[in-house]
């Protein structure tokens, strides 16, 4: 089994900490020989217990990063842009969770269950960088890929219900603080007003990230362009409305689809349940836990690896129309898990070994 030195940049953030937790598990393709953790200067020196050893957070620095075989970047795009090209030049595999390289034509944008063919050594030998998609894009493309293959997708309309952890650790603190403040002082303000444009506690906001000229938000635009890139279908008709909701972890998506082929809800459920990484929870008889039988909520998806699909039904707005609900843990499959699965795949298919021998 390949033994690797793995780096996490942004190790103190919500994605970095989730990656830290997941890396303590066993993988089929590699073992963590050594874990290196990086963050900003203010976190340097903090100590974490990883398996039987202690790992001290380092302030991000190129020299130390060069000792890694594979690095997971979970920081702002600007940090990825600064460090990744220098590390890639040295042949070090960089998996980027930020949006810095997602639209770059030489960088594969990968969800292993959907387009693992992009992880072949030849595809990344010159620039060993792989981008991990947006946390709403990942579950969406898994569902679309499964259904497109069988029923031929024409268009998709999606509305998201995104938890605050999608906006990072400070956003989790804002929801906590606003909620506490409401019960203690009947006041919804909090000290960090720059995270969300309006108060998020007891509210919903049809605004995730910045506004573009065409009226879409940045998040909506990413869902559309990333889905087209991953499915290799640049003309796919797709509309997205992204909404921030006052939940902590787990993003939901309400999706309406039109297909070329005739389709029933039962066929959709059957097709999705056979797709790796998707769990269909939509039938009372199938599941034991009471609150888990008919549909899955963000709280139930929290901490789980699967993308859950519920509420599958025909809709008459399109001739061959289907509506459904998707929910997944935005920090796991939506971020850290997907990135670590990419490393595992690159270990299994020989890409990392070829990079090390280069
Ligand atoms: N949250 C999510 O659901 C998803 C996030 N992403 C992307 O993943 C990335 C990380 O997001 P997230 O974990 O949510 O963010 P957080 O705000 O929770 O964490 C940010 C991390 O970056 C570190 N950092 C900040 N400034 C610097 C610096 N100058 N040098 C080095 N490290 C620094 C922070 O360290 P310190 O604690 O020391 O400040 C912290 O570890 C972002 O690009 C985000 O868009 C992608 C998909 C989903
Ligand atoms: N923007 C997402 C998180 C995410 O995936 O971001 P990005 O696409 O910038 O990595 C959210 O707030 O829920």
TrEMBL record:
What Enzyme Commission number does this protein have? 1.2.1.11
Q: Which UniProt keywords apply?
A: Amino-acid biosynthesis, Diaminopimelate biosynthesis, Lysine biosynthesis, Methionine biosynthesis, NADP, Oxidoreductase, Threonine biosynthesis
Which catalytic reaction applies to this protein? L-aspartate 4-semialdehyde + phosphate + NADP(+) = 4-phospho-L-aspartate + NADPH + H(+)
Domain of life, per UniProt, equals: Bacteria
* UniProt cross-references to InterPro entries, sorted A to Z: Asp_semialdehyde_DH_beta (IPR005986), NAD(P)-bd_dom_sf (IPR036291), Semialdehyde_DH_NAD-bd (IPR000534), Semialdhyde_DH_dimer_dom (IPR012280)
What is this protein called in UniProt? Aspartate-semialdehyde dehydrogenase
**GO molecular function terms here?**
aspartate-semialdehyde dehydrogenase activity; NAD binding; NADP binding; protein dimerization activity
Q: Which residues does UniProt mark as catalytic?
A: 135, 251
- Family from the record: Belongs to the aspartate-semialdehyde dehydrogenase family.
Q: Which residues cross the membrane?
A: none
Q: Does the keyword NADP apply?
A: yes
Q: How does it assemble?
A: Homodimer.
- Its EC top class is oxidoreductase
Q: State the organism of origin.
A: Fluviispira multicolorata
């Amino acid at each position: 089994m390949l033994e690797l030195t793995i780096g996490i940049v942004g190790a103190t953030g919500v994605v970095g900490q989730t990656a830290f937790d997941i890396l303590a598990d066993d993988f089929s393709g590699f073992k963590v020989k050594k874990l290196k953790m990086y963050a900003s200067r203010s976190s340097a020196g903090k100590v974490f217990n990883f398996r039987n050893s202690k790992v001290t957070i380092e302030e991000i620095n190129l020299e130390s990063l060069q000792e890694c075989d594979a690095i997971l970047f979970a920081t702002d795009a600007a940090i990825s842009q600064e460090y990744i090209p220098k590390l890639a030049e040295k042949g070090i595999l960089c998996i980027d969770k930020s949006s810095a390289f997602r639209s770059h034509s030489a960088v594969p944008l990968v969800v292993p269950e959907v387009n693992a063919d992009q992880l072949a050594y030849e595809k990344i030998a010159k620039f060993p960088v792989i981008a991990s998609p947006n946390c709403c894009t990942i579950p969406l493309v898994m569902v679309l890929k499964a259904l497109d293959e069988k029923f031929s997708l024409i268009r998709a309309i999606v509305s998201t219900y995104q938890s605050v952890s999608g906006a990072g650790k400070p956003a989790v603190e804002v929801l906590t603080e606003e909620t506490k403040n409401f019960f203690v002082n009947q006041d919804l303000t909090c000290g960090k007003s720059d995270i969300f444009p309006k108060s998020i506690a007891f509210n919903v906001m049809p605004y995730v990230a910045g506004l573009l000229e065409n009226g879409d938000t940045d998040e909506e635009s990413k869902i559309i362009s990333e889905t087209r890139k991953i499915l290799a279908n640049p003309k796919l008709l797709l509309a997205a409305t992204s909404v921030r909701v006052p939940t902590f972890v787990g993003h939901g998506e309400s999706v309406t689809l039109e297909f070329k082929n005739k389709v029933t809800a039962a066929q959709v459920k059957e097709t999705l349940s056979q797709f790796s990484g998707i769990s269909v929870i939509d039938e009372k008889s199938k599941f034991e836990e009471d609150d888990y039988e008919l549909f899955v909520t963000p709280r139930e998806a929290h901490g789980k690896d699967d993308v859950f699909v519920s509420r599958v039904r025909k809709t008459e707005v399109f001739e061959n129309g289907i509506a459904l609900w998707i929910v997944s843990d935005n920090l796991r499959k939506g971020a850290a898990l997907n990135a670590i699965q990419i490393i595992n795949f690159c270990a299994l298919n020989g890409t990392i070994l070829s990079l090390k021998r280069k």
